[in-house]
Amino acid sequence: MVCSGLLPAGTLLESLIHLTNEVTSGERIPLVQAKNISTVMRRIKLISSLFEEVKETDKPLPPSSILCLTELFSVIRRVNILIESCREGSQLWNLMQTEFISNQFYATVKEIGGALDILPLSLLNLTADTREQVELLHKQAKRVKLFVNPSEIQRRDELLHLMAANSDKNRKNKGFIDFKGIKDILSSIGLKSSLDYKEEISKLEAEAEKQAGTGGLIVLSNIHNLISLISLSKTTIFSEDEHLKTQEDLKKRKMPMNNIRQDQSFSQSMVFNIPDEFRCPISLDLMKDPVIVASGHTYDRNSIAQWINSGHHTCPKSGQRLIHMALIPNYALRSLIHQWCQENNIPMVESTSASELERSTSKRRSCENPIDHLSATKAAVDAVKMTAEFLVGKLATGSLDIQRQAAYELRLLAKTGMDNRRIIAEAGAIPFLVTLLDCTDPRIQENAVTALLNLSIYENNKILIMAAGAIENIINVLQSGKTMEAKENAAAAIFSLSIIDDYKIIIGAHPRAIPALVGLLGEGTTAGKRDAATALLNLAVYSVNRAMAVHSGAVPLLINLLTDDKAGITDDALAVLALLLGCTQGLEEIRKSRVLVPLLIDLLRFGSPKGKENSITLLLGLCKDGGEEVARKLLMNPRSIPSLQSLVADGSLKARRKADALLRLLNRFCSQSQNPVG
């Protein structure tokens, strides 16, 4: 299990210790999600002793440990952000989203268990107590179950009922709104005073701004309804005297916090929105002046300069010894950060002390020649190459347990960038991963197919995967994989490979490929249905594949998906149906549906722009060449003609053209019906 060159941990452990302390020594636990928060804090507390003991040994660690610790850092950081969101965000909105947030806590614990799968405890010099704690956490994480607090669900449902009452009745009927019920709900989540109500309204307004670009009309409507309800309740429940008193309390409460939070206001306000790649690995804040060190990693200039000035000669992220101390500006990343700040209306504060810090390191750099970017990243590339070769060796010669661990590590490594995907392929991983697709061990099969999916994102790897004869094995997993996740990722791999036109024909010609995708379309989870639909959409571009999709039963399943809110693939389902309409078998099968035409008429009114285009394409195709029955249904539906006229006026160019053609066709059909020949 041990390779000749072990990767040092560096200060990754220091960052983990700091982060776990921040999570476990948090302030108050909010009443919403209290059990999930306290449980995840307790579990992270269990693992903190591992980081402290490994740091005290001060010995190089195996690549598996480095990869595991890196994954744990990423997961625990997300836990920290999630807890802060529950603590600082709107409690009412958290209550409305209780199932979604509970799922996030559940997913993070499962990810901790997945990361611990690859931790080589036998190679670490740990005390018996610490080893027992880590093993206990691993077992807990593997068998954890989703917990959604029933009382929170009940309060959420009561709140929805009260929101409906508020939207149905205007101010003059406010006496009919159950303000006592509202007060009880708000009190149960910690909102008891007029001041609490006022702060909650401010948080809801901030949430509305955050959701404006992505949340959708229903989400924004719910938030504004909540603001209206709380504002009305505040005015009704609290007397004017109490309101004046709480204004004074507000001033007293805010004054001591101003000095504490003033410097942190910018970073805290953005903690939920900053992309990870824009954060400095040391400070975890938005990088103002990103620079590259000798290991190839990027940091904010202030943070890394302080690190170097304090006497460190290693990369904080990888632990590698720096072959030089030059800080090379990362102009590409800086440009991306600047663009992101402009798009999100965030002031780009320049680094004020960069010049002084750079001057303080000038002695160290005075005798060094300028280093270009390629030489600066060579050490990082070599480290990934060594890790990839080590893991491929384990795939080739290891036992089932070792292969399971190696496949999982390659799966993680292939997630993290194009260079890693290229290096893993060059190390010879693809043929071994293809062979493992036939393994009877569920975890090995799942890790192998997911690793191939991640590798296939790199264009040249698509060729290597197909050349290794992977498609037969991937289809086997899609059809009869050991886990649903393996089947879903097999479908996603087919989608990725079929981006290349030649492979659309090769994959479609396989007798089991399209039937297996159609099977997942009917039996898969939400994610599986989405993966299957997108893969079918790729394959159906070629006419030879459409008849097979129809013959496999795709049409009724796709029509059912048009009304499946959980799947969320209405546009993809419409796009596949529009393609299947192009073959004779598809047209005949689609015409058999009795529910499709009313659905398409509704989608003309409420669908997305792309959905409206495909809906009109389907209706036009169904009305042509003997589609009198469909035309008659359209003319009998009172919403169809106004919807078509609206598209002619306001739709996209393609939708306007097809809507106009369909209106002319319906007009001719109407004229022929009124003046029959003979």
Draw up the topology in text.
Elements: H1 12-24, H2 34-57, H3 63-88, H4 91-96, H5 98-116, H6 128-142, H7 150-168, H8 179-188, H9 194-211, H10 216-237, H11 240-261, H12 265-269, E1 290-292, E2 298-300, H13 301-309, E3 328-329, H14 331-343, H15 354-360, H16 362-365, H17 373-397, H18 400-413, H19 418-426, H20 429-436, H21 442-456, H22 459-467, H23 470-480, H24 484-497, H25 501-509, H26 513-523, H27 526-539, H28 543-551, H29 554-561, H30 570-580, H31 584-591, H32 596-606, H33 609-623, H34 628-636, H35 640-650, H36 653-674
Antiparallel strand pairs: 1-2, 1-3
Domain U-box: 273-347
Keywords: Repeat, Transferase, Ubl conjugation pathway
Protein name: RING-type E3 ubiquitin transferase
Task: Outline the structure in words.
The chain has 678 residues and is mostly helical. It is built from 36 helices and three strands. The protein has a three-stranded antiparallel sheet. The radius of gyration is 30 Å and the shape is globular. Residues 1-8, 168-175, 212-217, 253-272 and 351-376 have low confidence and may be disordered.
- Give the rounded overall mean pLDDT: 80
Largest sheet: 3 strands, antiparallel
> How far is the N terminus from the C terminus?
89 Å
Shape: globular
